[in-house]
Structures
1.
Amino acid sequence: MKIGWIILVVFFCCCASPADPPAVSFYYWKTTVQLGDREESTLQLNSSSRLYVRYFDVGLQNGQPFPISAVLFKTIPKQHIIPVVYIKNEVVLSKSIDIPALAQRIVAYLEQINAHYGIETEELQLDCDWSLGSKANFFELLHALRQQRPWRLSCTIRLHQVKYFEKTGIPDVDYGVLMYYNMGTISANQTNSIYDRQTAATYIKRLGKYPLKLKVALPIFSWGIHLRQGKVINLLNKLQEADVYNHSDLKQSENGKFKILREGVYFGQLFAADDEIKLENVSAETLLEMATDLGQHLREKPDEIIFYDLDSTNVNHYEKEIFQKTARLFR
């Protein structure tokens, strides 16, 4: 009998594998889902079994909530799909919103999309940067969605919602996804608005006290900021260093920005002479740094790291092993 128990203990200890790194997953944030070869190979290389797909946004039209930019599936991913619905803060700030009716419409529209494409989902994630003024409505919406279906429910968590959680509250969800990016104001200064370690340090010390189970979302996107006389004009999404270096009409300044030498259309936008482009991205070294810092402050190791977002332009910027390397730092 004692030998039998010893065998069982050894068996369960071997299966538990506490040192296993978190799973690697991705957000897919295009309106049309059509995975290319690079995106498919990235999912396969990282053994990704889940894909977080933006289904639609909810905004206000004539004071009423309305779905915006519904997803179109050209191909159906092999991974388990987790629908993500982005709720604009204006919706949950509204004093006249019928929350139960909104929850019913969200579910009905989601199920309509699933039925059209033959997709089955058992989980829903809401993305909303709720504030003190919209907290009550957002939390009521989460409760109403739970009443609609017995599904797994999650939501995104911003850093300020962690730091001030006594005031911003804890959402009633199965888990949250900590969005560890978009930490600053998009501006002409030298700070990287996607990720700044000094800014992050003012928030992450509170992670050890945050009571909700968390997964972590890390950025792999980039953009260029179009500047004119020190003022932000527009964003150039997915702009990479390779796009601007050695460009005949751009010259890199001492401050690291790229000056437009002559008026023209570049990267789909009209630039005047002397306009500037400020590049913002997250290097592979920075991803590893982020993971190390988070691993030291999270209350418990996350079981999943979700990279934002799966796109050939983004993943081509990194070595193929970077996502696994990053996840392993959370052991």
Note: DSSP finds twelve helices and 18 strands in the chain.
2.
Amino acid sequence: MSQLFRRKSVEGLLQNNGEKKKITKTLGAMDLTLMGIGAVIGTGVLVLTGLVAARDAGPAVILSFILAAIVCGFAALCYAEFASTIPVSGSAYAYTYITIGEFVAHLMGWTLLSVYVLTTSAVAGGWSAYLGGFLEGFGIYLPDKLMNIPSNGGLINLPAVVIILFITWLLSKGTKESKRVNNMMVAVKIGVILLFLVVGVFYVKPENWTPFMPFGVEGVLAGASAVFFAFLGFDALSTSAEEVKNPQRDLPIGIITSLAVCTVIYVAVCLVMTGMVSYTELNVPEAMAYVLHAVGHDAIAGIVAAGAIIGIMAVIFAYIYATTRVFYSMARDGLLPKAFASINPKTEAPTMTTWLSGVIAAFVAGFIDLKDLANLANIGALLTFAMVGLSVIILRKSHPSLKRGFRVPLVPFLPIVSIGTCVFLMINLPSSTWLYFSIWILLGVVVYFGYSKKHSVLVPKVQEEERKRA
């Protein structure tokens, strides 16, 4: 039983940074902030804003976003402390490995893999919808069979598959080269959102905000659970720790700044969008373009759609990137086959895991419904956020003198609040989501006992300690 909770030492994790085959440090605070904005601002603001307003919260969708942002804010503080203290790849996986133990760490890594892959696939589905609408503006109609998943009457969502494989190819060329393209995509995305706000604000009719809360408090809470998906992304920054030039300073800046900027953008877009048309009209996947068409700005709507097509690519970029770094960390620790930790000497990137992550995400995007993907990503992310909060409390007690570039205030109060709010939002998710997620966790347990437990890098150390005691 004790083997399930064997832990890696802080020194052991930090020591991995000195390995010969390490990933090159190329990222600064601005790169991280842009990567965070690129990961967060995407399907959430471009797709979920309208759908959640129409189905769950009405104009009060802004409260749903604010509530979700508060929950993420508590978690972001915990991530910032860990990322500045233990700058190694792996995110919640690495943090739970040194505080709770190997078995829980394995399940956190397993959960993160599902969160990042599912988010990549869901975002690609949103990208496909914008592409279809954009092309239709030029009289180009892609076959429905190649634009829809089987459950919606199609064969495959081909554009979603193609864009994921393209971004995978880009990432396989290495972080240094691909980050320039990512920064450009983020700039385009922010530009079209600002264009939407500047044009749309002149068409806001306050009467469209009445009734403000048509579905009551329950609708706001349901909306918060749904739009939580829109904030996933800042946590992916902590998986890049080994590639950051000055992680103790730059990671907290990147995590907190990107979350704050994204929250302001979400609230502004929701206010303008629900003010331009009635919330009952927003049950469409390309809501920003739709409301511009509704007020007669077809040209601006086309520009926004084009910008969305480019901008959502940055989200796919961030999540495939994060997936590969979790694969890399788990394989390096022996919990997955060592081949997943191999680094391409030419690109200085984990090429094999990059392609593995991309191919799996492309398959899921081609055949699975976006809403189901979002809910599964939500429950996994909420669980990992809660575990990071718990890990902060444990590390403060076990390593009180450890050098921390950033410290969460009011420990243990704020981490406990973070844990409680995450659990609260998890409870508001559908029972089917809990069922599918339980199956995934069960599969992770099988992998651990079937492979990981025997191949862990900690096995020789534990055996040596047992020989000494004998």
Note: Residues 102-136 form the longest helix (35 residues).
3.
Amino acid sequence: MTKKDVAMEEETPDQVVARASADVLRVVLADDHARMRGRIREALESGGCTVSAEAATAQEAVELAEEHRPDVVLLDIHMPGNGIWAAREIAGRLPGTPVVMLTQSAEEDDLFDSLRAGAAGYLLKDMDPRELPDALRGVLAGDGAMSPRMLTRVMDEFRGPTKRRFGRRSPAAARLSPREWEIMHLLSAGRSTDEVARELFVSPTTVRVHVSAVLKKLRVKDRESALRLLRGE
């Protein structure tokens, strides 16, 4: 280990921010699609960042993060080895190096699993790539980096608005996942299966699968019976 590596391990968060502000922001980029990595690299370099290394698998991301000690690691989720696993490993091995997920997945399970793994941000690939450099600098300054749609999911999880709008909380109903509550609330508001799918950016089949799971949990035969139970009717 070099003297520089030792010094970096001993840096405080304020020193990390100061160094990143003074120097070009160094990023390890992990995504299994080479063309996507190229587009992300171009956006980062146009915004004053430098990509220290690129990885195509979760294992490579962990190894390259340890080797290069970047300011930020930018991870895809659905790549060989699982980006959430990589986030957990990097957060444990390099606690001073923030990890930000950059993914196509708007699924709540991926969002909350990433945050539990230690990710400091969760960005969707449909964002304007020119905003990436500032988002990563914000993370180093102590801000969160999250696409607005996903921030709404986090706020809903803690506020629990869909759960409170139904009148009764039976032991069976309490087992519904946040996504199941969200779908049942939208259905109770008169949305069709296709409308719910469009609003949540999932397929109609996914909505039906979640509804089937709700029926099993509530031990009812149809959607209307489930909604009446959740409303306390």
Note: The domain at 3-155 is CATH 3.40.50.2300 (Rossmann fold).
